[in-house]
Specification:
The chain is α/β, with parallel strands linked by helices and about 180 residues long. The chain is built from seven helices and seven strands. The structure holds S-adenosylmethionine.
């Protein structure tokens, strides 16, 4: 795992504070490595990704839990989360939010599948508060960068009752944004 990712994972894990009773959803889960490293103790894990290859990879990477029925991985877009209302107690989106074309609609979907009191943590390694000129990244990677204020406004509009933003320093990322919200 890249050093930059390790710092982000540690920050997300600290903000999520996953407990054994949690049912955890990761949106844009990629290979599912975060949940393997930081969510092995929770009651259940679920991953969503819009890449079929990533769904296969995360399933393989978490095969033991899939076989015992405490993990599942589904294919789909963050704006249409394919689980029922109030299924999860915690959710995260790590290094993926900046790619989502319908960010507000996706937050509303995550809000829908969280139980009352459920937590959401989003990491934004690159963001509009970090002081970097991202012009090239935006063009090359087709991403959208947000300020903390914009994320907080979206959390509110999506229905979250509390939210807060913290920043920390990571390798090559001077101001990683960790955005947390509670339903
Ligand atoms: C940089 S990777 C991060 C993967 C993982 N969260 C991690 O930190 O290891 C971004 C992931 O988000 C997924 N993704 C991007 N846009 C998405 C969307 N709109 N809905 C669901 N997944 C998406 C990509 O397929 C990719 O697996």
């Amino acid at each position: 795992m890249a050093i930059a990712h390790r710092t982000i994972y540690k920050n997300v894990a600290a903000a999520l504070n996953l407990q054994t009773k949690d049912d955890y959803l990761e949106v844009g889960c990629g290979s599912g490595v975060f949940m393997k490293l930081y969510a092995s103790h929770v009651h259940s894990v679920a991953g969503l990704d819009h890449s079929e290859d990533m769904v296969k990879l995360s399933t393989r990477y978490n095969q033991n839990r899939v076989d015992e029925g405490t993990a599942e991985f589904r294919h789909g877009d963050a704006s249409e989360v394919p689980w029922e209302d109030e299924k999860f107690s915690a959710a995260a989106a790590i290094a993926t939010f900046m790619f989502w074309p319908n960010s507000l609609g996706s937050l509303k979907e995550i809000h829908r599948v969280l139980r009352p009191g459920g937590r959401l943590v989003i990491s934004l390694g690159w963001n509009a508060d970090d002081g970097i000129d991202h012009t090239k990244h935006i063009k090359e990677c087709d991403i959208r960068l947000y300020t903390g204020k914009e994320v907080q406004a979206m959390f509110k509009e999506a229905g979250f009752s509390e939210n807060f933003i913290t920043y920390s320093k990571g390798f090559g990322m001077p101001r990683i944004m960790i955005a947390s919200a509670v339903k």
